[in-house]
Amino acid sequence: MTGFQKKTKRFGSRDPLPWLAPALLVLAAFYAVPVLDVVRLAFSDATLFRPPSSYSLNSFVDVLTSSVLPDVLITTLVFTGLSVIALQCVGLTIALLLVRGERRHLPGMASFRTLVLAAWVVPGIANGLIWQMLFDEAPYGTLNSLLGSVGLGPIAWLSDPTMAMLSAVIANVWQGTAFSMIVFYAARKGVDEALYEVASVDGANGWDKFWAITVPQLRLAIAANSILVAVQTLNTFDSILALTGGGPGRATEVLALFTFNTVFYNLDLSGGSVLALVLFALGLGFATLVFGWLRRDST
Amino acid sequence: MSRLTLAATLAITVSAAALSMPASAQDLVTRTLVGLPDAPNTLTFRLTAFDLYSSDDATREGFEALFTDFILARPDWKIETQLQTASIGQEQARILQQTLAGRGPDCAMIDSSQLALFKENGVLQPMNAVFSDEEVADLFPYVRDAVTNEDGDVLAWWWFTDLRVLYRDTSVVPDAPETWEELKAAALTAADAGKEGILFNGGRWEGTAFDWLANFWAQGGRLVEDEGVPVFAEGENREKFLAAVAYVQDLVESGAAPQRVSSIVNYDAFNAAAAAGTAAMFIGGNWQYGQLRNTLPEEDFANWAVSELPGPTADQRATGTGGWTIASLSDDPEKAAICGEIAKEIYAGPGNALQGLLPTSAALYEQYDAYEGPEFELFAEALQNGVSRPGAAIYPEISNQIQILLGDVLSGSSTPEAALDAAAEAVQGAFERL
How far is A291 from chain B (nearest CA, A)? Predict the structure, then answer.
């Protein structure tokens, strides 16, 4: 190593701040400042049209002791839990099918991948409207008509509270599967094929290979995807807003939608800020749990 | 002169003539601008997507012509247009927030239900120079009260109103039901015949609360006191509220209305049901009459009739009245005047007639042939029982809670009493934080 290289390395490793400063400044301007402002508003008495005039814990007390919050949190956890599990399963299944299809040089694999990705680019509101049309319970509604043609249904897709939740999950999974599929597809491509060949020589069947090779090898991808889709789902409100509006009653009113309603119906900016912090804490808590599990697992 | 030279000369002549002529409607109206880009004065106007930028070609072209005439008469002005999305509550909140921060548009369409909030915040600028005392006096009383202040200043112009009516397929329901009981009986008869008896909004959106409120108002119920304090869950109001909830709950539980009403979140669902021939009755807006006429085959449309919303008794009737206003948010008197002139010259008269919307001034019904149909006599009669939403800042949350309450009750998740208690608690909490 030359003296110049040594000097450069020493400079970079001892004093990284100058190199990181631009990135830190950008992050601070676009992320930290708005987050800190939300924290400030949460302690204030601000409404949508009135700036803060005093600071206290009142908004925290009001929001956290609200009789509605437990129901909203349960709805959020059910929606997020079901969505994350379904997104992982469907995304992984499609990714593995794609890899298998490509390995066997089946025609149409690129089209299949594009088709799945197409749902990803649909905006949330449009996604909600599309599924609202499909789930329409009118005698001429799309899905119920199809079910009726084979002697099934009709199903109260949106007017029954339980089915409305399931419908919201289906719409969310349809849109979000592509992301999970990409993550798992990339991770699966990175698995050494020799492992599968050795397993085949040892007489392992497909199921054995899946549990003994694929799942352990994709462990990191599963963890990372869990966090990403969980946070993404926690923040989902636009598709639900268009699909059910949070109804019937509060059956599909998740925390993000409740926050939106608190700000734009109640005009309660401080209460909405408290809810935004709760949402932030939930996402952070889940990420910490998954990373903690990963670290413990790796040691 | 060769043919080529002649053609070139003609082309130059035509081009020069075109340059000297006024621009056409298409040139003067773009997606973001009305007028010439280099006009010295600018008015920013935030409007909805239902007229100048309507997806309906005839409506859009009609408004393009009206705006073109307007701007040709004011060559020193251009109007920068800003489109509002369909998310009314959010859009209106944004306009108010931006105006309070000094970044609002000069002129904007304000939903009539939100007008009080804008008045309360003192952001509306008088447009007195545009409207005469006679014109103000000719407004329907509830409209006049809403658009003027104590000093008689015209703070907005409510350019059209609407109301809710009962639509019925007369081949299934020949006589108009006048009471809740009559409506239930007619709907059950229709349901027995394989139709959906009665459809109404029951999902999570403003239309659900607004349409249902007619049942509450018909009994004389009040949502808020004069000072804006919520009182809908107290004393006699509570009984009236529960009676109105029990009425719609009974419609669903008896099968007069299908369970799916608790998922209906737009009026188009009723047009679709009428077109499919699956519904016997629905509670819709007056504007749907024209839509049905344009959508249904003539012989099918002939079966449809409108009538006043039934009440608990034939004498107790009410209907929710809505509509849009145009208001100036700029303290520049010239801009306030242009804003008022837009409301008066484009929207309130010819714009209404173009779309078949209901004017808020009696004189305009006489002025335009568009209001000669028998349905307009019924609408005018029903407007006598019109009630507008309270001009209180807490109204959006009351509406939100009514939507939740009806959803919970209609889906069987809660009893009317428990749902009303929960709604009252939530509204009171929100009111105290306002």
Answer: 38
**AA identity, residue B80:** E
The verdict on B266 touching A (C-beta cutoff 8 Å) is: no
Selected for mutation to probe chain B from A58, A68, A133, A137 (highest B CB count within 10 Å) is A137
Percent of chain B that is helix, strand, coil (3-state, to 5): 50, 15, 35
Cα(B403)–Cα(B409) distance, rounded to whole angstroms?
10
**Coil, strand or helix at B322:** strand
**Number of separate domains in chain B:** 2
Q: CA of A22 to nearest chain B CA: how many angstroms apart?
A: 31
> Which of A49, A133, A163, A270 to mutate to probe the B interface, most B CBs <10 Å?
A49
Reported as a single tens digit per residue, the pLDDT across B205-257 is 989 999 999 999 999 999 999 888 999 999 999 999 999 999 999 999 999 99
Contact list in B for residue A270 (CB cut-off 8 A) is 433
Buried b (16+ CB within 10 A) or exposed e, B9-19: eeeeeeeeeee
Touching A: B residues 130-189, CB under 8 Å: none
Q: What is the pLDDT of residue A292?
A: 84
Splitting chain A (299 residues) into consecutive groups of 10 residues, what average pLDDT does each group show?
49 74 88 91 92 94 93 96 96 94 90 86 92 94 93 92 97 94 94 94 93 94 92 93 93 96 88 96 90 75
Q: Which of residues 61-80 of B touch A (CB under 8 A)?
A: none
Reading the block at residue A231, the tokens are 């946070």
What Rg value do the Cα atoms of chain B yield, rounded? 24
Do residues B247 and B352 both lie within one domain? no
Domain containing B50 — which CATH number? 3.40.190.10
| Nearest CB to B97; choose among A48, A156, A251 | A48
B258 occurs within a structural domain = yes
Question: Which residue from A47, A48, A158 is facing B263, i.e. has the nearest CB?
Answer: A158
Q: What is the pLDDT of residue A13?
A: 61
- Distance, in angstroms, between A85 CA and closest chain B CA? 27
Q: Which CATH superfamily is domain A72-298 in?
A: MetI-like (1.10.3720.10)
Residues 176-235 of A with CB under 8 A from B: none
CB contact under 8 A, B276 and A140: yes
What number is the ipTM of this complex? Answer: 0.83
- Predicted pLDDT of residue A4: 47
Cβ neighbours of B269 in A, within 8 Å: 136, 138
Tokens of residue B136, six digits: 């103000």
Tell me the CA distances in angstroms from A66 to A256, A285, B408, B427, one per residue in order. Answer: 16, 22, 18, 12
Q: Are residues B102 and B201 in the same domain?
A: no
B-chain CB neighbours of A265 within 8 Å are: 89, 396-397, 399-400, 430
Report how far residue B147's alpha carbon sits from residue B124's, in angstroms, rounded to the nearest whole number: 10
From the list B202, B278, B433, which residue is nearest A138 (CB)? B278
For testing contact with chain B, the best of A75, A265, A269 (most B CBs within 10 A): A265
Count of beta carbons in the 10 Å neighbourhood of residue B377 = 12
**Beta carbons of B202 and B193 less than 8 angstroms apart:** no
Nearest-Å Rg of the Cα atoms of chain A is: 24
The Cα–Cα gap between A127 and A130 comes to 5
- Nearby residues of A175 by Cβ (< 8 Å), 6 or more positions away: A119, A120, A122, A124, A127, A239
Q: Which domain holds residue B115?
A: 25-161+322-377
B139 and B40 assigned to the same domain:
yes
Specify whether B133 is located in the same domain as B177: no
